[in-house]
Amino acid sequence: MVLLLRQLILCVWVCVSSALVVHSLPWSVYCPAGCVCQIKPWFSPQSLSCEVPTVDCNNLFLTQLPSPLPLNTHTLCLQSNLLSALETPLLHTLPNLTELDLSQNRFSSVMTLTLTEPQIPSLRSLLSLHMEENQLRSLPPASFSSLPALQELFLSHNQLASLAPGAFSGLGSLLRLHLNNNHLTSIDPLWFTTLPCLQVLMLGGNPVEVLPERGFQALGSLRSLVLGGMGLKGLPERALEGLDSLESLSFYDNLLTTVPTQALRRLPGLKFLDLNKNRLSLVQTGDFRDLVHLTELGLNNMEELVAIERAAMENLPELTKLEITNNPRLSYIHPQAFFRLGRLESLMLNSNALTALHQHTVLSLPSLREVSLHSNPLRCDCLFRWVAGEHPHTDADAHTDTQMPQAVRFIQPQATLCSEPPELRARRVREVSITEMSASCLPLIPPGILPPYVGVREGERLALHCRALAEPQPTIYWVTPLTPSSPPLPSSSAYRLLPEGTLEIVMVTAREAGLYTCVAENTLGADTHSVTVGVQGPGRGLREGRSHEGKGQDSKHEEQHTYEESLDRYGYCSWRWCSCRWAESGDACGSGWDYWCL
Question: Ranges of Basic and acidic residues compositional bias (predicted)?
Answer without folding.
Answer: 541-560
